[in-house]
Design brief:
Radius of gyration: 15 Å
CATH architecture: Beta Complex
Number of domains: 1
CATH topology: Metal Binding Protein, Guanine Nucleotide Exchange Factor, Chain A
Number of helices: 0
Helix content: under 10%
Largest sheet: 7 strands, antiparallel
Strand order of the largest sheet: 2-5-6-10-9-8-7
Structural class: mainly beta
Domain DUF427: 32-123
Pfam families: NTP_transf_9
Number of strands: 15
């Protein structure tokens, strides 16, 4: 981390550089809303956050938080060394389709068992995501699904030049 200038968290903030590796799973009770195609596709006050060194939190919502018909199975799988094999979903709102914008773990590793079938989405693929009314900023890079709010400081993995962090 010698070339990385860690931001100092202010009151009520946390640094992603204090998150552990392997990642930590934390239960959240913030108000979460996800909008696509001008519709609220998910709303909940129950979530799980995956917290990993240098990454903003990735939020996972209960499948029941999504409106009926807004999740459609999508092709492909990936593997996370910590959570297991992920499956993908398209997020659908009317005629708007965010292809492979969501993912879940049908059979997660024991440390992440609480995530079984919980859905995470790429905030960059949605019209908007909010946490307690605050607009989420998407983690850069197109590969990571972190949700950046004023509660976390970086720098965040995903920006140009951060691949080797």
């Amino acid at each position: 981390m010698s070339r990385i200038k860690r931001e100092v968290p202010g009151p009520g903030q946390e640094s992603v550089w204090d998150y552990p590796r392997p990642p930590l799973l934390r239960v959240g009770h913030e108000s979460i809303e996800i909008e696509l195609g001008g519709q609220v596709v998910a709303r909940t006050t129950t979530s799980w956050q995956v917290l990993e060194t240098s990454h903003p939190p990735t939020y996972y919502l209960p499948r029941a938080a999504f409106a009926p018909g807004t999740l459609r199975p999508a092709a492909g799988h990936t593997v996370c060394e910590w959570k297991g094999r992920a499956s993908y979903v398209d997020v659908v709102a009317g005629e708007v389709v965010a292809a492979r914008a969501g993912w879940f773990y049908p059979d997660p590793t024991p440390a992440f068992a609480a995530l079984r079938d919980a859905i995470a989405v790429m905030p960059a693929g949605m019209d908007r995501c909010t946490v307690d009314g605050e607009l989420v900023r998407a983690q850069e890079g197109g590969f990571y699904g972190g949700w950046i709010t004023d509660r976390v400081v970086g720098p965040f993995k995903g920006s140009p030049g951060s691949w080797g962090w």
